[in-house]
Design goal:
mainly alpha, single chain
């Protein structure tokens, strides 16, 4: 089928690239969100009480009652022994696996979960310069390669010590901090002005899908295989996607070997040209109330979103007493949204 002047009659290369970038964002948010659940699975003897009790009972149980879980090889069933009543309770979780766990206090857990953000905040500005210098394909390809390798090393770092795990998570956040600056740089050379909103929407859809995959799939994998195998699967998936990215992604239409001449000419003729020495009106920007309103909205939205992203699994485990398999099912039916 011949493409029209606007290249709307066929599947265009720029939309294929947008879908590929969406996949990159899905993996990016999967790595960012799944570790919140993995930490819950890594911690030893979390206080999981049976049933829904009142807040007073929950507080007293957390302080005085320790729940010790016993795993049986027969049918992979789980029993809980309460040290005060000495009653043995059978839980409805047949998917738990025996797994090495760690005695981390809440402060240590928070430090490990937050380690990703410590590294992420320092590489975002640098990511824009790297993309302009080397191209988004190389920067994003190296980002997903290193983050996948670091994810594969995470179990070994955890067994080596909590500070080794902290360093690895900081490094994961650092190498992934270049993601959004590089994506915007690539889109600036691929997206005509009339289609930027549409293409950017396709790409950012990966945020929601990544959180969905990060919570539902991770919780299910942990209950089936354990937290260490879940990290290996996640890291291996990243290496596979890295190969796909290197084969299919290109920095601009001019270097893409399979793009049609019609689409390449259409994109290049509609891109806005900018001068290298264009002055940035910093004073007008910083004194604009509209800018500060946008900054305020973005900060509050980001604070609430990432607070839920990092703290909700731990809250559901320690306060609501949900098992991991139940957490995955709640996310599957849309509780998060």
């Amino acid at each position: 089928m011949a493409c029209t002047k606007r290249v709307t009659g066929c599947i265009s290369t720029r939309y294929s690239l947008a879908v590929l970038l969406m996949g990159f964002i899905i993996y990016f948010f999967t790595l960012r969100s799944n570790f919140s659940i993995i930490v819950v699975a890594m911690v030893k003897h979390s206080a999981n009480n049976e049933g829904n009790s009142s807040s007073e009972n929950e507080c007293s149980n957390v302080n005085t009652t320790q729940v010790i879980k016993y795993f049986t090889r027969e049918n992979n069933t789980v029993f809980e022994l309460h040290n005060e009543t000495r009653e043995l309770w059978h839980t409805n979780s047949s998917d738990y696996k025996i797994q090495d766990k760690f005695s981390w206090d809440p402060i240590t857990q928070g430090r490990i979960i937050g380690a990703y953000s410590y590294g992420h905040v320092f590489s975002q500005v640098m990511g824009g310069f790297l993309e302009a210098r080397f191209g988004g394909k190389k920067v994003l390809g190296l980002s997903i390669l290193l983050s996948s390798v670091l994810t594969l090393l995470t179990p070994a770092a955890a067994f080596a010590g909590e500070w080794w795990l902290f360093v690895v998570r900081v490094a994961v956040g650092f190498v992934q901090g270049v993601t959004y600056p590089s994506i915007f740089g690539i889109l600036s050379r691929w997206a005509p002005p009339s289609e930027r909103g549409r293409l950017l929407t396709i790409v950012t859809t990966g945020e929601t899908l990544g959180v969905f995959v990060g919570f539902t799939l991770t919780a299910r994998l942990i209950t089936l295989f354990g937290w260490a195998v879940t990290l290996y699967i996640t890291g291996g998936a990243g290496l596979v996607f890295c190969c796909i990215w290197c084969l299919l992604a290109f920095d601009s239409p001019s270097v893409h070997p399979r793009i049609s001449d019609v689409e390449r000419k259409y994109i290049e003729s509609n891109l806005e040209t900018t001068t290298k020495r264009r002055e940035i009106p910093w004073f007008k920007m910083l004194t604009s109330p509209h800018l500060w309103v946008l900054i305020y909205i973005h900060c509050t939205d980001g604070w609430g979103f990432f607070m839920m992203l990092t703290c909700l699994p731990l809250y559901m485990d320690t306060i609501l007493n949900f098992i991991l398999d139940a957490v995955s099912k709640l996310y599957e039916i849309g509780i998060y949204q």
